[in-house]
Amino acid sequence: MTDKNFDVVGIGNAIVDVISTSNETFLEEQELPKGGMTLVDAERARRLYAATGPTTEMSGGSAANTLAGLASLGGQGGFIGKVRDDQLGEIFRHDIRSTGIAFTTLPAEEGAPTGRCLVFVTPDAQRTMATHLGISVTLGPEDLNHELIAEARVLYLEGYLWDAEAAKQAFLEAVETAKANNTKVALSLSDPFCVERHRDSFLELIADHVDLLFANEQEAKSLYLCVSLEEALAQLQDHCATAVVTRSAAGSLILQDGNRFEVPAEALGEVVDSTGAGDLYAAGFLYGYTRGYPPSTSGRIGALAAGEVISHVGPRPQQSLGALLAARTLDI
Fold first, then answer.
1. Residue 76 domain boundaries
2. How many domains does the chain have?
């Protein structure tokens, strides 16, 4: 791809994850749909936190996780997101910069606190999220770094952020900068409930601007109101140059230029926590995509990155993904 300083620049929610183990009874009592993401206000976030057991705190956010994975593979990335000048905001800024990711957005001096996501992991490794977006949802066009976007091979947009009108406008302005500078645009649909809320505008965004789409099976079917995945795939290949559909243990499907590639999942041990699996798959795929690797090879790197992150608690790699990749023989 074009010679630029960054492989990927992502725009997304800057959030600190608060992770705890849970069970289905707790989820039912708290009216949290298993496997989904529920937006909550500050008071409900406080009550949920009080009802949980021991927790682990670490920086998260979908696009930020993807960029951390990209950095672990040896890629160059930048992130645009909004935090407050509070304790969680400082944790987020330190964590993402420590991975080598460029993060230039200044912390806000007033407004809502830094966003946090309560992640409840059930014994089957499924994760259920209750997210208080905090100040991250107020990201707007004024927070964009257009020079950073122009220097990226790919602009990566986190679908979760599409909930806020100011952020939506920021996305569209970022896309304009990307297109003017030969930067590809990638979108992650993020969550089936997110797709339900924004189906029509997502379809318009994909048709007009998106070069590379990431979705899981549920999101793909929800996007086109299809019962079967095959129906959804038939429409995806007509609306996007490259589409990636992840299917958990069933692996992933990649559609590009009328071709279809099937990639198996990678198992690096027992599945402990599925948090971040889709984010890290995107990291691996984008690493290969920005280097011009074949779709199947990019998919295998994505599967490897996802396989590592589900082998432990937390949404970011604990091993060097670059070292894991170097130990594999791939057809490049």
1. 6-15+60-112+134-326
2. 1
Q: Using one digit for the tens of pLDDT, what is the confidence trace for 18-34?
A: 888 999 999 999 999 99
Q: What is the H or E stretch that residue 208 is in?
A: helix 192-209
Task: Please give the average per-residue pLDDT across 197-205, as a whole number.
Answer: 91
Q: Is residue 292 part of a domain?
A: yes
Which residue type occupies 156? Y
Structure tokens at 270: 């027992």
Which phi and psi angles does 166 have, rounded to 5°?
-65, -40
Per-residue pLDDT reduced to its tens digit, 254-278: 999 889 999 999 988 888 888 789 9
47 within some domain: no
Instruction: Please tell me the distance from the alpha carbon of residue 285 to that of residue 214, in angstroms, as a whole number.
Output: 10
Supply the pTM of this predicted model: 0.89
* C-alpha Rg value of the chain to the nearest Å: 18
9, 18, 93, 16: which is closest to 60 by C-alpha?
Answer: 16
Q: How far is Cα 108 from Cα 25, in angstroms, rounded to an integer?
A: 38
